[in-house]
Amino acid sequence: MEQDVLLRVQGLKKVFRSGESDLTLFENLSFEAKRGEMLAIVGESGAGKSTLLHILSALDRASAGDVYCAELHLNALSADEAAEFRNRETGFVWQFHYLLPEFTAAENVAMPLLLRGQTWQQAEPDASRWLREVGLEQRGHHRAGELSGGEQQRVALARALITGPKLLLADEPTGDLDGQTAEAVFALIARLHREHQLTSLIATHNLSFAGRCHRVLRLGRGRVEEIKPESLLA
Q: Is 79 in a helix, a strand, or coil?
């Protein structure tokens, strides 16, 4: 794999069994993402954006085709190896924050490190640093339900990045937020992408946000095509 290519997708196909028949969500999807690129994935609901992100993060397996991340062939990973890949190499942000309500913001951010076996004393400084990165240093002791929607998504972003992943995958990360809050969260994602030299793939219905990414892939009718970001801002 070329040195500046972090992610390579070749001939990807996903088929779901639907009753007596097979439903092909997409097939022959091929694209690359270079290190440091911010890619938007757009398309109608049901086009397969979420499924594609799940495959790229080794949460799901393709029916055919190959995914390479750095030197790893994701198709060849065992369940334990896939879990290790997710914990160390990828950060995932969902439309819903999935914070654990019984824990504080700081404890939620630290969770990936705690799952690795670190103690709270070991993980707490990193959790505090990442809360500071997302502008919530003063909210670390608050439980998830005491935070606004935008704050909850900022905590989820800090949790996704605390392990220092190379790849950030975000599935409609602003979908549940009002316009002003969504703008703030997208701006934060863009800043963290730059400052931490991430490679980011963001599935979004917001064409304004997609148009501000380096590249845009449109998923539809089982195919993927690249479109110019500036075409979405016209």
A: helix
